[in-house]
Design a protein that fits this description.
Order of helices and strands: HHEHEHEEEHEHEHEHEE
Number of helices: 8
Strand content: 25-35%
Number of domains: 1
Number of strands: 10
Distance between the termini: 24 Å
CATH superfamily: Vaccinia Virus protein VP39
Oligomer: single chain
Strand order of the largest sheet: 3-2-1-7-8-10-9
CATH topology: Rossmann fold
Length: 229
């Protein structure tokens, strides 16, 4: 850490907060990063506060948010916007737009979410969007390897990783949303995803941003995995 970063860490509450979010990431250089499920760029902003990747690909299927991301990062040469959904197959897919945009997904949402989260999380529309597998994303965006693959796909994480299994040896770390309840139809739960990645050479090294329902039940979190060398 250089002197500028040390000063920021001491004086900026935001910097300290995002540093804690990423403290379990492997201590490796982050030259190439994929942020799948970029939404409005909050993860990208936080990551850029503590790391300076040479290439950051923001993957977002929501057409409205894609335009926001293009405007927001127009001056950042290191950032590319991929206006697609990551999916189990390439082509086109239906994307369910939720009243809460962060809950939009390729998968139908479980109506129980309203009770778990204490707010309306209903679908208000559907759009057809282009989709890529992980392998095709790597090919189209010239990704020989990725130091960090961030996934926030509202239940599609397991299906995307499984379809892109052959790509996983080219990924050094994964930062992914994990579910402890079936928030979406056919979504993989944490207890399916963890052994799947462990069998493919990844070690769980951290869990952050744990979310509980109104009744105290564990609902979701972010998990960090590193690839064993």
């Amino acid at each position: 850490m250089n002197l500028t970063q040390s000063f920021r860490k001491l004086t900026s509450s935001y910097y300290r907060r995002v540093s804690r979010s990423f403290r379990d990431l492997p201590r490796i250089p982050y030259r190439t990063v994929v942020d799948a499920g970029a939404h409005k760029g909050s993860f990208a902003d936080a990551f850029l506060a503590v790391h300076k990747p040479e290439k950051l690909v923001l993957v977002e299927p929501n057409p409205h948010l894609v335009e926001q991301l293009r405007t927001k990062y127009a001056s950042r040469a290191a950032i590319e916007i991929a206006p697609v959904a990551l999916s189990a197959s390439s082509g086109t897919v239906d994307f369910y737009l939720n009243r809460q945009s962060a809950a939009s997904s390729l998968l139908p949402i479980n109506p129980e979410n309203d009770r778990w989260f204490g707010r309306k999380l209903d679908v208000i529309g559907k759009v057809t969007v282009p989709a890529l597998t992980l392998r095709d994303l790597f090919e189209q965006y010239r990704l020989a390897s990725v130091d960090l693959l961030k996934l926030d796909l509202q239940g599609m994480e397991g299906a995307v990783l499984d379809a892109g299994e052959s790509i996983l040896p080219r990924v050094n770390a994964i930062y992914t949303e994990v579910l402890f309840e079936s928030l979406y139809e056919d979504a993989w739960l944490f207890f399916q995803l963890w052994p799947y990645l462990r069998q493919r050479g990844f070690t769980l090294c951290g869990i952050t941003n744990v979310a509980h329902g109104h009744n105290g039940d564990l609902l979701q979190a972010n998990a960090i995995f590193r690839r064993d060398k």
